[in-house]
Amino acid sequence: MTKITLGCEPAVGSLAPSKKRDYRVTNRLQEGKRPIYAVVFNFIDSRYYNVFATVGGNRVTVYQCLEGGVIAVLQSYIDEDKDESFYTVSWACDADGTPLLVAGGINGIIRVIDAGNEKIHKSFVGHGDSVNEIRTQALRPSLVLSASKDESVRLWNVQTGICILIFAGAGGHRNEVLSVDFHPSDIYRIASCGMDNTVKIWSMKEFWTYVERSFTWEELPSQFPTKYVQFPVLIASIHTNYVDCIRWLGDFILSKVNDCLIQSVDNEFILWEPKMKEQSPGEGTVDILQKYPVPECDIWFIKLSCDFHYNTAAIVGKISDDVDLEAYIIQATEKGKYLYGNCRLAPLLSLQGYLMSSPNLPSGKLPCRLTEAQYSVAVKTEPFGVGIQSQPHSL
Amino acid sequence: MAMSSSKVHPHSTDAGRSESPDVPTYSNGLDLMHTNTALQESATTPEISLVIDSLKLKVDADRCAYIMKRMEENRNKLAEITRTHHKLSTERRNLGIINGDKVDNLLTRRQKEAIDMQSRVDISFGSSSNSQEDEYASVILLGSGIAVKNSVRPIHLPKVEKLPPYTTWIFMDRNQRMTEDQSVVGRRRIYYDRNGGEALICSDSEEEIINDEEDKKEFVDSEDNIIRGCCLVALVKLEHPILSLIYWPSACLESLVKSRLVIVQSPAVSPFLALAYGEMKYHQHFIQARHEALSSRQNVIESFDFNSFLDKDLEAAQDSFDNLFCRRCLVSVIVICVMFLVLVLYFLQPLNLLFLLWQIFDCKLHGCSQDLIFPAEKLTWDGPDEESVPCGPHCYLQVQKLEATPSMQLNTERTPALSSDASGVLVSRGKSNGPSLRRRSKPCKNGSIASNTQNVTESSDSETRPVHDVIPYHSPLPHKNKRGGKSGTHQRNSKHVANHVVTAMKRTQRNVASDSDSVASGSPGSRDREFLSNSLKESKEASSWSPKAKSSSMRRSRRKDSLVPDDHKSLQVQVPYPLVKKEDVSTCRKEVTDFKSWRTLEKALFEKGLEMFGRNRLVHHFDDLVHEGSGLHISSFFSLGSLKMELVIFYYSLLCLIARNLLGGLKTCSEVFHVLKCYENKPSSKGSDSTNSLGDGCRVDSNENMGLAQRRRSRFLRRRNRVRRLKYTSKSAAYHSMRKRISDKKDMPCRQYKPCGCQSACGDDCSCLKNGTTCEKYCGCPKTCKNRFRGCHCAKSQCGSRQCPCYAANRECDPDVCRHCWISCGDGSLGTPGRKGDNYECKNMKLLLKQQQRVLLGRSDISGWGAFLKNTVPKHEYLGEYTGELISHYEADKRGKIYDRENSSFLFNLNDQYVLDACRKGDKLKFANHSPVLMVAGDHRVGIFAKERISAGEELFYDYRYEPDQAPAWAKKPEDSGSKKEDAAPSSGRAKKLA
């Protein structure tokens, strides 16, 4: 853990659930008997702001939020491999605006589904183990990143089916990569974190020509000169345990560490600012701005997500066994703020009116690392969490 | 807080503070002082803590304000970002709509259907979608609690065969050392077993190295403020109990705070303190504290100032140059050579840039821990001469013609004598000493001065070195220094030199034209240091004769001295030559300022250029140079002190090279020329207490490198220490490692070779002998060394059996060492060397030549990944090399624990120092089990050979990685695994991608 010198301490906020009910459940739905691992709204295309997709088991389902809390099932996809268990899903689109769904899971095969034509678009085989997270570059929605158990992060072009870059090697992660995220505005920058307790920030600036080439590649995708990015620009060892989730908030990074194994109070969100030195990559400092200890969070591999405007992030807290496999739709009472969430992902959207959460899956049936939670917590990442009980300790 | 305490102070127990027992033991006097001031302290303690508290509050408040500000900034930025995103998504919507008109987008259609249906449902008051249950609906509305299953017709995604699991790995065609941050030592890793339980494997607690971070604590401003505030309020508060009141979130040592306190207040406050408390005891204390402070600051200075001397960029660049000589970098050498050739052709100048391919054992990049060692014998390259054609309108030659016209006559007068003499030196040297000497002794050349360079070593060098009298004008240069002479003779000699300087000075002062280019500096080779240190004193005297010059170079020398205070011994002598005339001084000053205006990188590049090109322009060109009137501006000898290189001649026509190749586009040739001119004048005239700036540069460079290495290391240590002390499960503590330890069948592992630096035949103190390895071609010792491995003298095709000494010693033949083992270049189209002829190729150099079989990866017939051979290979055929990360045994133990839990181990014992780990880096033969360790070009490498005939397409072995029952297979049947090389390596990323 980085030593924090006097005058650089983070402000500590609190994540105790607010008494005020900002959201209420408007609907609940159930998908089979297998846990829902991810839910994600389509932020890529404003036509589909009210469309979201879930994955659970070998299914990918597309829903639409309608007036009055009604939810419509639009599409449903089933992988013929019954052993497949999708962990993550993300929206993408190709050059002519066709909405694509990119899902990955335990098999390590990334499925690109053409939702516009209801058929499989491509399948990316390449990861040597399960895929833990997939994220889409909002500025170039044909680019997706996948984090995998095989200790690598890969950058794919879903349009052409090319694996452009592999972030692994000499400076790469030394254990499963759990989470990855694109910088929202700096197209070259990504961050990844994983079970080796580190957060690594990578730059693909030098390799950007390959990214561009991938769009015009005519030959077989397997012929593409995939490059290894071996050295990150920053390695931050600010956590002492698994880093489950990482999200860029502007230039800041919100990362979550979970220390359920060793019974300590290490479960916390940290909002920090990476300070890279341009001259010497690999050497940089970290300024930890805020800390949010997570109460009673004894599960890990939880993902958090932010709303479209990055004003609110959500995760799911405590686990419980006695609730069915359900997804809750909660309508926000606060006007214009809607929160969607589930066991692993709680994306938020400010335009539509729902909060969806699918917590509370029996943990016995799951791999131990994937469990569900009873309630969702909203974290506002304003200074010291305005609106939530969080105050800096020192004032 | 870690406090080194020993003595309980009386007053502190009274106060009852928890931190008060932590009073360090001081001398008696100081102890007394403590008791004296105890009263005052206890009186002011609450005050102090108040102050401290308020200061801390202020720091906190500042921090809060800062965070607020940053968050607000970030929020504004985010708002902008989301606006962009929204705009983009709207654009996509429009794009989609345009396309959607033509092609019906199913998602959009379903969306519409859902909305339609909802309105219909609302109208008909029906509840959700029950009415359509018999058929799969295209869209289903869900009110509450309705199962999604069976609602919509599912679209099936065809099954895709998944890959056998693997960990991403990087292909490497040769072994690499582990980068430091890849170490698992001191880190924690959690392993999952199949049942979902977790086990923690981590480093043992004793691995946690003692925290040395305190020594390096950097005080931030806020901390300084607190300290300052404290001592302003209560000046006595240098005492520990008070200091410990200051709460440090980062637990730093009291003593550090104290020393920092002194630093913080020393400039302004300390006199005041001394006045107010005029006690001697206080002074004592203060002085002691200051000593601590100074020493700590000294460290800081030492470690940081060198860094600022050169740009970091240059260091990186230098790496690449140094790599040229590394045996591991030979591949890149070729590439770079080609690049240079292209460059040369581009500029249409015959650039005689050939690199002397001294084979240095390891370069910086490859973790060279020992000094660079230059073999006692090596080849130098005699290149063709190059002409001095102006390279452009800004070429120095143009400039110089103007300047040199008056001096031309003089030069031409001088040249015949010079050339004859110089060539005489060359010839005689060649005759008497043979090539082995050439490398040591290079004639010094100067416009008007001869300097003697004596290579005198304490070592038992058998060669007597000639004295190089280069300049006929100064005939009295006959001191033939005998090797091993006492310092007295050297002193005398250097007095002679100094005398010469004087006479030469007088003479040259007459020679108006020649002043500008006359500079002499003799620089000895690395072996001459003792001599140097002696003669330095002398040359100091000499320098006192030239006060003017000294002062003119003061500025520079001062800086150098401050940077490199203690390297006099290792630096070269310079014969001071203060002949700079007034106008020259002025121009020189101008140039100096010019040079100062150069950017650091440019300067460094320039120096590097001198070093590089100068190094390659050896004595061989000397005669020709002499004949060229305008080219006769040879001046300085640069001793590449750090690199232990020899004397090197530099001459001006290289300026073009420097300007083009190193400072391409940044500076013109003439600029370089100007700078060089005063560059030479300066160091030569600045007297012997300053140093040749180039050599100095090198020196500093090497120091810096060392410093960097140290710092890098310490940083790593620090980082490791930062890792919290871990708790360990009992499981991890006593886990037995099933590590794949394959050495030779003997228990004795091979020893890691490290070249020795002996310059003569290796004696008892030879590091190779001590280490138990043979001397190799990288050693400094001559070929006649008894400890050398002499290679084989096998005739054709005999190297494949144990009759070949190389083969018998588990070594590959080395064309540099073995007599008949060689291979022709390329496909023979370039012509083969005739004398050895016969198309014979040594069969014992396969690893060296990378003559490996094509190995294919595929899905194993049994499980996981399998490796297959593309072609049929006969028995004993070399298949490939097992490459991986070179890690230490300690590291391997740690990794082995992890790998054993995963039932896969790629560890491979190489020798007594290193273990190969192919887990993340390696080649397709990652899983080979039982192979001989061969000595190839000084390295131990692992080759894999077929023990029986293997037909094409046959699987070499298969992965038992995921079948724990078979995991210890290597232990059971090593001969089998040896015969069919098994391989279960994961495939490379690209091969697996599906379209």
TrEMBL record, chain A:
Family: Belongs to the WD repeat ESC family.
Protein name: WD40 repeat-containing protein
Keywords annotated in UniProt: Repeat, Transcription, Transcription regulation, WD repeat
PROSITE patterns: WD_REPEATS_1, WD_REPEATS_2, WD_REPEATS_REGION
Database matches in Gene3D superfamilies: YVTN repeat-like/Quinoprotein amine dehydrogenase
Transcription regulation among keywords: yes
WD repeat spans: 124-166, 170-205
Automatic annotation (TrEMBL), chain B:
Protein's organism: Cynara cardunculus var. scolymus (Globe artichoke)
Region described as Disordered: spans on this chain: 1-27, 415-567, 969-995
A Gene Ontology BP annotation from the UniProt entry: regulation of developmental process
Keywords attached to this entry: Membrane, Methyltransferase, S-adenosyl-L-methionine, Transferase, Transmembrane, Transmembrane helix
Basic and acidic residues bias: start-end ranges: 11-20, 526-541, 972-984
UniProt xrefs under Gene3D superfamilies: SET domain
The organism's taxonomic lineage, starting at the top: Eukaryota, Viridiplantae, Streptophyta, Embryophyta, Tracheophyta
Protein name (Swiss-Prot/TrEMBL): CXC domain-containing protein
GO molecular function, one term: histone H3K27 trimethyltransferase activity
Extent of Polar residues compositional bias: 448-459
Bias kind Low complexity: ranges: 512-525, 542-552
Superkingdom of source: Eukaryota
Catalytic reaction equation(s): L-lysyl(27)-[histone H3] + 3 S-adenosyl-L-methionine = N(6),N(6),N(6)-trimethyl-L-lysyl(27)-[histone H3] + 3 S-adenosyl-L-homocysteine + 3 H(+)
Residues passing through the membrane, by range: 330-348
GO CC terms of this entry: PcG protein complex
Domain CXC: 739-838
Domain SET: 853-961
UniProt keyword Nucleotide-binding present: no
InterPro entries in alphabetical order: CXC_dom (IPR026489), EZH1/2-like (IPR045318), Hist-Lys_N-MeTrfase_plant (IPR025778), Pre-SET_CXC (IPR041355), SET_dom (IPR001214), SET_dom_sf (IPR046341), Tesmin/TSO1-like_CXC (IPR033467)
Protein biosynthesis as UniProt keyword: no
